[in-house]
Amino acid sequence: MATDTSTDTPTPSDDAPQPGMIKADLLAGLVFIVLGLAIFYGAWTMDRLEVRRINPMTVPGLVPGLLSIALTLCGTILAFRSLRTPAVGGWQQLSGALVSGAAGRALAVMLLALIYTLGLIGTLPFWAATGIFVFAFILVFECWLATPRQPLLRSLPWALGLALVTATVVTLVFERAFLVRLP
Amino acid sequence: MFDGLLLLGGGLAHFLTPLSLFNIAWATLLGIVIGALPGLTATMGVALLVTLTYKMAPDQAILCLMCLYCGAIYGGSRTAILLSIPGTPASAATTLDGHPLALQGKAGTAMGLATTSSALGTVVGIFALALIAPLLAEAALKFGTYEFFWLALFGVVISGQLTAMDDPLKGYIAGILGLLVAMVGMETLHAHQRFTFGIPALGGGVDLIPAMVGAFGFAEILGVMKRSAQARIVSSGDRVIPRLSEIFRYKWTIIRSGLIGTFVGIVPGVGEDVGAWASYAAARRTSKERHLFGKGSQEGLIAAETGNSAVIPGAMIPTLTLALPGSAAAAVLIAAMFIHGIRPGPLLMTENPEFLYQIVAILLFSTIAMLVFGLTLTRPLLTVLSVPRERLMAVVYVLCVVGSFAITQRMFDVWVMVGFGIVGFILREMKYPMAPLVLGIILGDLLDLNLRRGLLLTNGDPSPFFTRPISAVICLVIILTILMSIPAVSTRVRSIFTRGRGDASAQS
């Protein structure tokens, strides 16, 4: 009888956990345990509304309390499972991932987004904040964090043009067509 | 039966107007473009478009959102075939055979087959929607507070189980986190503020749309920009329109994948990616050309594309009849329906029976538009893929900010979007699925309200939750689902079945 010798199709379940991920699971498990316990405390100390003669089984803290127990349980299983799984070099891999180029790029996006959202919007007119954000985003990722890097003179016209178009179109469409008072 | 046909005819006639046809055309095309661009998902597209449909009539708004949803799920196949990067997670299975076909110089054939099978998958799902939804809506009228509690829990548990294929525990944790987010704000039974920490903006709870734009939009931007490699597009020069014989050869694969996709769609919160993987796995198991799978199998490509597209109408079945979203994008559609004054749920068939058939009509029109655009605009659509992500993602983030702000016009929602984006990105990096998290936010109130209302009705006695027949069945399914996700239990059960089958074959 002929056997199927075809290569296994990579399905999502084929990925074996990496040592770094096992250690990340341990940290996450601990975070979920702390979070679960904190929510349980919040649910337990929540107003039971006795003065309104509310049935104790219908108090507002019932469901958050049950969910916090479930989260603590899941966090404990996750942490315990991670402790039992061998992960040689896991901490090094995890710390390596946190200081990798990919992490740096993600951090750069976060920083730009936070500067735009928390700093520029509200301080400057919306169109100006948006223009500056788009301009900076394109230049940072094309001329600085790209591999290979683009020459500044090639990216500059695109960054400038797209910043102007985005700032104008988004502001006009939302303020004039949809009557949204932008921040 | 005739009432249904009449309502369907009414639905089709309702949208046969120049305005509706124009909306179908641009929304489907926009959906295809969004789906084709890696990093822009169907859910993100629908969430962003919701903010642009406020001023539209409700029927036209839902029409645009549904067309964009269908177009985006299909559009993901372009990138999957040409770049080996799924444009949306739903197209991940398509890359396995679509890209090898493109590398063999059959990119046109692959795109034509993907287009046709997507359309056929949607048609299979549409039949199921028209047949099953009215029956389910009728059955749902018998559901009480106890059943709705279990249904809400079932949605989160099954979504957690199926979307985290590697690790159901992470799916459950994501679901619990979503449910906990839903606990923030004023609860509906006694009007008590929970976990607001004195912040007035939290009194109304966390809005779904900013949370979803963050979890599916900003988190996606972070995920896309994290990568430094730029993919190479495979050119296509062969014929795009497939021969009928090519399609007819795989008729059983199409029917089976369509049915699997529809069933996956009905299961709350699971979504198109699971539909595609399940269809692909079933086709591979039963195929006579199994050796070709993963190396450029037309059958594999057809199965994946039929499966993910059939999920869309399937997902609308629980969405419309139970208000339980069948997929993440359907969750945004529920929010959009509420914004436009349409109440999905068991009462929909009594309050607004024509709406269900309008959805069927929208799906039919969208499928036709998808087929036309897919087969005729293949080459112009390729230019879309050449837009550098550095330029695209900057604009997308601006839309995420404006989209979150536009709903209630307060900066707090933008901060919610940013917060969910960063947390969502970290969770995704650690392989936590986002669908159960979002489903938890949607179903949290349903779960909380029905549990406590049920206990209020019985004066604290929980027994009806376990003794009423439908409740008992759903409760049993939840317990079995959780038990089967424990490796020790599932291995033991599987070994019992394998032993039983071995004994039976030995006896025969």
- Strand fraction of chain B equals under 5%
Helix tally of chain B equals 23
| Poorly predicted spans of chain B | none
Shape of chain A: flat
> What's the number of extended β-strand segments of chain B?
2
Quaternary form? heterodimer
User: What's the average pLDDT of chain A?
Assistant: 87
Strand content of chain A: under 5%
Computed Rg of chain A: 26 Å
* Total DSSP helices of chain A: 6
Report how far the terminal alpha carbons of chain A are from each other.
71 Å
Radius of gyration of chain B equals 22 Å
Q: Sheet bearing the most strands of chain A, described?
A: none
Structural class determined from secondary elements of chain A: mainly alpha
Structure description:
The complex is a heterodimer of chains A (about 180) and B (about 500). Chain A is an all-alpha fold and about 180 residues long. Chain A contains 6 helices and no strands. Chain A has helices spanning about 20-45, 60-85, 90-100, 100-120, 125-145, 150-175. Chain A starts with 18 loop residues before the first helix and ends in a 6-residue tail after the last helix. The relative contact order of chain A is 0.09. Mean pLDDT of chain A is about 85; it is low at about 1-15. In chain B, α2 packs parallel to α4 and α7 (about 145-165) crosses α8 (about 170-180). The relative contact order of chain B is 0.18. Chain B has a two-stranded antiparallel ribbon with strand order 1-2. Chain B is globular, with a radius of gyration of 22 Å. In chain B, β1 (about 185) and β2 form a beta hairpin. Chain B has helices at about 1-15, 20-35, 40-50, 60-85, 90-105, 105-140, 145-165, 170-180, 210-225, 245-250, 250-265, 270-285, 300-320, 330-340, 350, 355-375, 380-385, 390-410, 410-430, 435-455, 465, 470-485, 485-505, and strands spanning about 185, 195. Chain B is mostly helical and about 500 residues long. Chain B starts with a helix and ends with a helix. The longest helix of chain B is centred in the first third of the chain and has 34 residues, at about 105-140. Chain B contains 23 helices and 2 strands. At the A-B interface, α1, α2, α4, α5 and α6 of A face α8, α9, α12, α18 and α19 of B. Chain A: It comes from Devosia salina. Chain A: InterPro entries: DUF1468 (IPR009936). Chain A: This is Tripartite tricarboxylate transporter TctB family protein.
